[in-house]
Design goal:
The structure holds two protein chains of two kinds. By secondary structure, chain A is of the alpha+beta class. Chain A has a single domain (3-154), classed as Roll (Thiol Ester Dehydrase, Chain A), CATH 3.10.129.10. Helix content of chain A is 32%, strand content 35%. Chain A has a six-stranded antiparallel beta sheet with strand order 1-2-6-7-8-5. In chain A, strand 1 and strand 2 form a beta hairpin. Chain B has a single domain (2-126), classed as Thiol Ester Dehydrase, Chain A, CATH 3.10.129. Chain B is 22% helix and 42% strand. Chain B is built from three helices and eight strands; from the N terminus they run ααββββαββββ. In chain B, the strands form two sheets. A six-stranded antiparallel beta sheet of chain B has the order 1-2-6-7-8-5. In chain B, strand 6 and strand 7 (102-110) form a beta hairpin. The chains are: A alpha+beta, B alpha+beta. The A-B interface holds A 17-22, 43-50, 54-58, 60-62, 64-65, 80, 82-90, 93 and B 7-14, 33-40, 44-48, 50-52, 54-55, 69-70, 72-80, 83.
Chain lengths: 155, 130
């Protein structure tokens, strides 16, 4: 993988939009080839004011976003993608006042769809706060080969 | 009931507004630049719509089953149906079934036309019954 992709493009994709910037997302490197995002605990991200636990909706956003990063990591480039669907299991409450991490693996990449699993945790990936399974649609620009195949099909 | 979401910091971060009519809640997420996830289109971040849906479902459960503790999500499934455009989003939820411990909830989010939802949610919540 190109260094510029890991050093420049992935961090930009992790944190570069207005929403991810406002939430404080930061790229936290590749771990055995899987991208990781860190989000620092903040009191305005809390979902239960009685416990200080981070909102489920933020965890969903984090898992959706890290899944996209896993797809781009698998493609080794940026291409437009869209989340098709996402299922999140909340296994336990996140620890208050603790940074949250998320990591994802694109375990199958077809020409049109990417299948992803993702986890959110504080320190230990084997003790997840939440886990997600998701699918993304790839909006690849048609390649020369696609155009040739289409010409052949319509000829 | 509008108190419920006002108490939640993340709902305030998303600037969610709640309307209660009878036993039904409508939650509005006013458009703001900080909700944009794709600056090229531009489009809302799917996560902000998912969070709106989850908060709407939670508020609907809390309205139907008042309890000192907030309903806790067990799992949620979100399907993204259309691109979220840079405008207000509305959401409503329906409780399909509630037992003693678990409620099953469905919710939809839309922008201009309710018949053209931008996302739907199916979720289970843990109820705080003794």
């Amino acid at each position: 993988m190109h260094d510029s992709f890991v050093d420049t493009i992935l961090p930009q994709l992790a944190a570069g939009s207005a929403h991810t910037g406002a939430l404080g997302f930061a790229f936290d490197g590749l771990h055995e080839g899987e991208p990781r995002i860190r989000v620092p605990w903040r009191k305005d991200l809390v979902g239960d004011p009685d416990t200080g636990v981070i909102a489920g909706g933020l965890v969903t956003t984090l898992l959706d976003h890290i899944g996209g990063l896993a797809v781009w990591t698998a493609m080794e480039e940026f291409q437009p993608i869209a989340t098709l669907d996402l299922r999140v299991d909340y296994m336990r409450a996140a620890r208050p006042r603790t940074n949250l991490l998320a990591q994802a693996k694109c375990y199958r990449l077809t020409p049109t769809i990417a299948f992803v699993r993702a986890w959110a945790f504080e320190e230990d990936p084997s003790d997840p706060v939440a886990a997600a399974q998701s699918a993304y649609v790839l909006n690849r620009p048609p390649t020369a080969r696609d155009a040739a195949a289409k010409r052949e099909a319509t000829a | 009931m509008s108190d419920l979401l006002e108490r939640i910091p993340y709902a305030r971060f998303l600037d969610l507004r709640t309307l209660v009519s009878g036993d039904e809640i409508t939650v509005i997420m006013p458009f703001a630049d900080r909700l944009i996830g794709n600056p090229m289109l531009p489009a809302l971040h799917g996560g902000s719509t998912a969070a709106l849906l989850e908060m709407t479902a939670m508020a609907q459960v809390a309205l139907a089953f008042p309890s000192p503790r907030l309903p806790r999500p067990i799992n949620v499934t979100v399907a993204y149906l259309r691109t979220g455009r840079p405008m207000n989003v509305f959401a409503r939820a329906q409780i399909s079934r509630a037992g003693r411990r678990v409620a099953h909830v469905q919710a939809e989010a839309w922008q201009e036309t309710r018949a053209e939802p931008i996302a739907s949610l199916t979720a289970h919540f843990l109820l705080d019954n003794p």
